[in-house]
Amino acid sequence: MAVIRTGLLFTPAYDEEAAEALRRQLRDALPGVVVLRDTGIPSRRHQVEETLRRWCDEEELDLVITVGGTLPAPGPSGCEISPEATLAVVEKLLPGLPEEMRAYAREQSPLALIDRSVAGIRGRSLILNLPAGAGPAALFLTAAEDVLGAVMAHLREEENAPSLNEALSASDSPVVHEAAYDERATRSRGLQETDFAVFLARRSATDA
Question: Given a cut of 80, is residue 128 above it in pLDDT?
Answer without folding.
Answer: yes
